[in-house]
Structures
1.
Amino acid sequence: MIIETKFNLGQEVWGTSLHGSNQQVICPECLGKFEFKNPAGNTVQCFKCSYGTPGYIIEYVREQWHTHFLGRVGKIAPIRFKTQGEGRYDKDRVEYMCEITGVSSGTVWYEDNLFDSLEEADKETKYRNDHNVQA
Ligand SMILES: [Zn+2]
């Protein structure tokens, strides 16, 4: 079997990956005011944002695709091809080991999450976020 790969060993690549993040957002209860008057006319502090920064809460933002520069492919381990799907993936996928700049360990990436250029990676990241594509 001849395996055609999209990237050459040592080539620089960008990747897109799915993850969520925590963000500080204006409290939806007091709209950032923290103190307000209750129906009885007394000034009270907002119960929802009384911990941390007054007027703000920490909210988990749903998983989104993010573009990353990954360094060069194939530095740590050879390209690997799976002939049988594993876990939740039921299609064949080519995997690459990618170095992370300045760190001696690498991460395994699927070929369909890797790109030749930042522009290509950003375009795909935007597409996946706009279309709510899952991993
Ligand atoms: Zn509040």
2.
Amino acid sequence: MKVHCPSCDKVLYSRRLKQCAFCGAEIPEALRFSAEEIAALDRSLAESAARRKGNEHEFEEREAKRRADSDSASSFFSLL
Ligand SMILES: [Zn+2]
């Protein structure tokens, strides 16, 4: 859901701001995230970032294993 500044009607790109970045008008509390919502948002962002990192690591491990497997397979076949 997009939130517009009640003063200049520009789309607010961040609901954390207390003031409109365009006209400087104060953003009503109802249109802003509360401190709890911001904290929850930060937490979920950090969590998803950590998850992404974890997945990347897992992927790298899988790739390394796959490479090792194919290496041993090719050396096995070279013995035949
Ligand atoms: Zn504004």
